[in-house]
Write the structure tokens for this entry.
Amino acid sequence: MPTESRSEPVRVDVRKTCKLFINGAFPRSESGRTYVVADSRGRFLANAALGSRKDARDAVLAARAAQPRWWGATAYNRGQVLYRVAEILEGRREQFIDEVSRGEGITRARAAAQVAESIDRWVYYAGFADKVSQVLGSANAVAGPYFNLSVPEPNGVMALIAPERPSLLGLVAITAPALAAGNACVIVASQAHPLPAIGLSEVLATSDVPGGVVNILTGSASEIGPWLAGHRDVDALDLTGVADAALATDLVQRAAGSVTRVRLADPAEDLTRVPGLGRLRFTCQVKTVWHPIGT
Amino acid sequence: MAVSTWQPILAPVPDAAPTPAGLIALHPGYAPFAGATLAEDPAATPSNAALTASLRGLPAVDAVGVERRAAALASRSIKTTAKAQGISLAVSMIDLTTLEGSDTPGKVRSLCRKAVLPDPADPALGPVAAVCVYPDLVATAVTALAGSPVHVASVATAFPAGRASLRVRCADTADALAAGATEIDMVIDRGAFLAGDYATVAAHIAEVKRLCGGVHLKVILETGELATYDNVRRAAWLSMLAGADVIKTSTGKVAPAATLPVTLVMLEAVRDYHALTGRRVGVKAAGGIRTTKDALRYLVLVNEIAGPDWLTPAGFRFGASALLNDLLMQRRRLTLGSYVSPRDVSVD
């Protein structure tokens, strides 16, 4: 039998379609639009969904429906679920290191440090879930026979605009405190480097966080942001990722129409440092209760 | 099979009607429907065999075609000023409904206030067409709506199952009428219909219509239980023949409730019946219509199938409760330019 050299069949890559994360599912943008995600040298990385105002509307609807259940779970259980997110992040470290280093154009070592810090930050806030009320609440001394208790409660539905960089740590730093306090979130991911956010949405989908508690949109913050800011069903707006002063002004004005709480970007904030209580405090509103003693 | 010996019941087709002869020539099953309604002619008691032959003579529904057509019409995009107009029209067509065992007089009163003035921030909007309640709460609704143009509709005839004797069903209706209901929503006997006993179904409708007199009678087909589009078409024609003023899809207690294809079949029936007899029967889609988008799809369907003459509160109604809040939210969204919170509208 003559020997015949047969070349190995060429394997066709299975390419990933990057989608949005709304209500626990991965839909394409309602608008049908996509945009090209490139690495730091302009080479093609992926096509990502370009979210529209209707995607934002659907996301807010999902978040509003999911929030009572998330807040209704015991704080201890919320902590456990968030810790599980950290476990799964840990298992997918290599993927995140790859996405962060290629997207941001930084060395693998620096990307690995960012991913490690992100996972640690997630664990940090997972631990906070059942300590928020002790740390931010208080029993107040008052001039009368009353118990006077200040209790932190979540804002409800929060819209978060993630910073462009650091692409994973920035996202985690604003999302984890909101979740620990019992909020549901709609997040606009980094436009230039959305792949770690898409990876995080896959982690969240497999980690017992109820569908709709976190919704991640990819696309332009200047396009989606105004609709989220003006949305009357959004209770708080975190503008950490909005560096442009004109856009920030516009968003703040829109948010004022429905008396929405706003946190502006703080140029002095270093997201890589272990945070203080500021972010956690913004995710809660304090309710003070008076109760007569002895009745 | 011998075609029915049953002849058109009363007067022949009026000359003004648009060529019913053409319809009859195409579909012999239409012929018996050209007379007056059974309710108007107590002497007419068509045999079940004659009714069966007539209804089986109706052309069969092309199920695939109906669903394709409904889906195609549902894909139309209605925006800005057309949307605003559609929303106002839809509000005026709503039968604001509460049919729960837990209904209280207080809940009915607050629903009535909302029916008269759906959006307190915008007195130009509304009122809705009617408030729909159980018979024992009709008196409460009548008092609350005194002096307003809003009708009081009452479900009757052992709603929602209809599993009671004709005597009981009529007594239920008489109670609602005595309490002041200006519209009656009756259910057909689906068991009799599915068993092929069309004469009983028709006789019950005719009897209730005679009891109602001038009061508007809506006949609920409960299409979710009729299994096929052919049955929906037959039930629609049977109800119109017996004397229905409006044919209604569902009670809202059975899934699936109103769907676009079923409503399309019913709209075709009222259109053809009008062409044949000159009498305009309305359609009411009830159950499961919760969003503005859904409501606008139904309005497109009405306009395209039955025609613009049906785009009035007399020609088409929505049986709904949650729909009104979504219409109000969408209306505000159009004026404000930003999305609205469900907390901005009243809780029913």
